Amino acid sequence: MPADIKRYFERGLNILQFDRTPFALLARLSVLPLLILAFVLSPIIVIISAITLIFYDVMFTSSSFPVDASHVPTYYTPKTELPWYYYAIILSIQCIVVGGIHCAGWNLAFPTDTQRDLWHGASLAVTILPSLSFLIHTTFSPIFKLQRVRTVVQIGVVVYVAAKVFLVAQALALLKNQPPSAFLAVDWTKFIPHV
Questions:
Q1: What is the pLDDT of residues 32-52, one digit of tens each?
Q2: b (16+ CB within 10 A) / e for 9-44
Q3: What's the rounded Cα separation, in Å, for the pair 51 and 47?
Q4: Higher-scoring residue by pLDDT: 153, 21
Q5: By C-alpha distance, which of 169, 165, 18, 170 is closest to 108?
Q6: Is the separation of the CB atoms in 127 and 100 below 8 Å?
Q7: How far is CA 66 from the centre of its chain?
């Protein structure tokens, strides 16, 4: 085991050994609800802070666009000073939302069991792979060689693109096998009275 990793684990074990007096236990238990609340709200806090920092960086610190310009170029993208992982967080969240929409079709009727299973696998791949690739890159880059981590992330990107292409092709293929209820006329006045 490398010395850095060994020191990291020893430091972690020292942190776990704490004072067992009643006051210390009470102090730790009083912080527990705040930790639970912070854990539950952490995705929302991360999303809001990342979006806020990106907006602030683009609006106030970006100096890539001339002040006296009369128009914005067609393919203009501001140069920002934020680290790459802010954009990776936003991209991962967008991929989770899009993948969640595909997972919403989990119990739809499929012509064959194979198509249903492939849809489930591709939906999960589209939902999980972007965040998993981001976590692998940020977690294992300091430990392993960067080239190995990049190879794993690139494999994840290829699988993600293949799953996305499959979902589009499968959605188009499923249009030819619609259930009879898809061809029924909808009486919109039952749902929207003023129409």
A1: 777 787 777 777 777 787 778
A2: eeeeeeeeeeeeeeeeeeeeeeeeeeeeeeeeeeee
A3: 6
A4: 153
A5: 170
A6: yes
A7: 34
